[in-house]
Design brief:
Part of the FGAM synthase complex composed of 1 PurL, 1 PurQ and 2 PurS subunits. This protein has 5 helices and 11 strands; from the N terminus they run βαββαβαββββαβββα. It has helices at 14-23, 67-77, 87-95, 151-159, 209-219, and strands spanning 2-7, 27-32, 44-47, 81-85, 101-103, 111-119, 135-142, 146-148, 163-167, 178-182, 188-191. It has a 9-stranded mixed sheet with strand order 2-1-3-4-11-10-9-6-7, with helices on both faces. A two-stranded antiparallel sheet has the order 5-8. The radius of gyration is 15 Å and the shape is globular. It binds glutamine.
Length: 222
């Protein structure tokens, strides 16, 4: 698998994401927010966590208008894979690539802790190395992780088996306990928790490693 990881001013999980992909066997190229194209032949673009452009306006709103996001949109429209973590999920929602919005946490506080997630579906390249129903411990670190979508969107997400992860104990008010969702073609995943922070024994937990291993397994090592 060949991946690109986008770097915005204010990204702070870009290298963590690249390390997790490389540890799983992927070839990774970093791309800058002002770049207008993604590297030729990439399978997947990763949009990392952090505070792109300082989280001004709304988290991810300025990043969604960046030159690289036009290339991300074209990649996704061609059927390419994309993976947005935390601020990356916010960016994917702000571009409209994924439905819904990430609102301020219900308790209005920044939350930084490891939470339990239930794997809702194993039917995607991202979640194929888990079993549906598995409960995994993955860190969250956000102040705008409260997922919201209108009832029609929620019905579509549920009916099409596109909820990838749900919180076991809802930390932020997300509707339906939703922690991560898939696109209609199941090739785009956005999630607020950080699997790249639970991908190595040194992190204190390795429950996120299967996501990267499964993805590289599904798309083939570089
Ligand atoms: N870790 C992150 O990516 C944080 C995302 C965003 N800055 C928030 O706090 O909601």
């Amino acid at each position: 698998m060949r991946a690109a990881v986008v770097v915005f001013p204010g990204s702070n999980c870009d290298r963590d994401l690249a390390v997790a992909f490389r540890a799983a066997g992927a070839h990774v190229t970093m791309v800058w927010h002002k770049d207008t194209t993604l590297p030729d032949g990439i399978d997947l673009v990763g949009i990392p966590g952090g505070f792109s452009y300082g989280d001004y306006l709304r988290c991810g709103a300025i990043a969604a208008q960046s030159p690289i996001c036009r290339a991300v949109r074209a990649h996704v429209d061609r059927g390419g894979y994309a993976f947005g973590v935390c601020n990356g999920f916010q960016v994917l929602a702000e571009t409209g690539i994924l439905p819904g919005a990430l609102l301020r946490n219900a308790g209005l506080k920044y939350i930084c802790k490891t939470v339990d997630l239930r794997v809702q579906t194993s039917s995607s390249a991202f979640t194929g190395a888990y079993n549906a129903g598995d409960v995994i411990g993955i860190p969250i670190a956000h102040h705008d992780g409260n997922y919201f979508a209108d009832p029609e969107t929620l019905t579509a997400l549920n009916d099409q088996d596109r909820v990838a992860f749900r919180y076991v104990g809802n930390p932020n008010g997300s509707v339906g306990d939703i922690a991560g969702i898939l696109s209609e073609n199941r090739r785009v995943l956005g999630m607020m928790p950080h699997p790249e922070r639970a991908a190595d024994a040194g992190h204190g937990g390795t429950d996120g490693a299967a996501l990267f291993r499964g993805l590289v397994g599904a798309l083939a090592p570089a």
